[in-house]
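BUG-477 | component: ligand-complex export | severity: low

The export step for 6-O-phosphono-beta-D-galactopyranose jobs runs without errors, but we want the raw record kept on the ticket for reference. Input record follows.
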Amino acid sequence: MNTYKFPEGFLWGGATAANQIEGGFNEGNKGLNVAVVLPGGKARYDILTKPGFDFEIKPDQYYPNHEAIDFYHRYKEDIALFAEMGFKAFRMSIAWTRIFPNGDEIEPNEEGLQFYDRVLDELHKHGIEPVVTISHYEMPLHLVMEYGGWRNRKVVTFFERYANTILTRYKDKVKYWMTFNEINSALVMPINGLGFSIEKEEDRYQPTFQAYHHQLVASAIAVKACHEIIPGSEIGCMILFAPVYPFDSNPDNVLHALKEEQIFNYFCGDVQVRGEYPSFMNRYFKEHNIQLEIEENDLEVLKEGTVDYVGFSYYMSRTEKKEKAAEDASEGNIIGGVRNPFLEVSDWGWEIDPVGLRISLNKLYDRYQIPLFIVENGLGAYDKIEEDGSINDDYRIGYLQEHIKAMGEAIEDGVDLMGYTSWGCIDMVSMSTGEFSKRYGYIYVDKHDDGSGTLERIKKKSFFWYKDVIKTNGKKL
Ligand code: BGP
């Protein structure tokens, strides 16, 4: 047993996203969204960055895995497995396109609303608290094609209608909400977050930050609505957080790392927690010729729509060097930087840094002084089924043990940490690669990159390990 003290009521659980688990991509009148339409991460970017979106949507363009893991039909079985592990919380997203198939309709799609009624009721049947992401990289494709994604101010109105609809519908079933998944990721993954990408790197700043402004206003509107519609609810922002290390003690590299941390890690969080643009953005806007179009009440809305907690994903740290690094980060490191020689990497080249999680928790809590919630953290790895049918994912247990220890240390450092929903509590489609072989789950799903498989669920060794962690509130790691 260890000495870490996790708070009573700590929200142990797991995290998922609609587009990566549900399937049923066109069932129940659901519309198409950016995330599930095109094969793999790279293919999706290439096609969507061609001017004028000159592609047709053909059946063979869908993920070979467009049924994902078929949570749409198997949610009762999966939720029973989460309950067997003792989950206190389950992070899920609501697919915007199940509620408004094209995104710009006036009336919602009742069949979509009823699906999430059933899922939320099933979670409560097992005493599991839903933690709902309003938009998890799942923008309706029609809003991308017809309006240009978040560049278009009209999308704020469409999002407000969507958020009000689900907040009202599920006000008695969901206490914990968050607005946009990894809202800051658009700087490295524009399609997922903002629903568009710009061909030439140097042209991207103005449209990206105007789109960010629209999304941040939309987030604040949803936060205000949540507080009005659901008294006692807690709604957070959600940031992809990666602490930035300077390459060495050269002050130029230390300053470069600080500026990278400000724009990537803090810009969106500052607006959503403090309710205003941070002053360091004034210089950034000037240096990148960004003139935001800010409507009359926008700044007041930002001020009123501040969040109750900071949700964030943690996978890795980032090491930055002012001059273009000789050796760039391992290609799997989707947020860039240079290779950190002190860190091992995963099967997909993501650096493994549990101390970085303790650093992240201290930095975020020092800055915001409101509860933190780790809503994504996990190890994507190749898993192997042994002769006897067992899956001995000791590498995943080791990864999670070290990161949970880092959480325990941070709590002793004085951090107010409210929960941990590890990423990919069940195997699913990888967001960045469209692959199945990149497995995160405590539960194996028999599904493969070529689309084959029985969809059978198999408990891995980590399933039983995590069950004990939750049962002992983190004492038994
Ligand atoms: C985060 C996304 C998740 C999930 C995770 C793992 O950025 O919020 O949806 O996909 O990354 O990434 P991947 O699935 O590419 O391994």
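Assignee comment: Attached the raw record above. The chain is about 40% helix and 15% strand.
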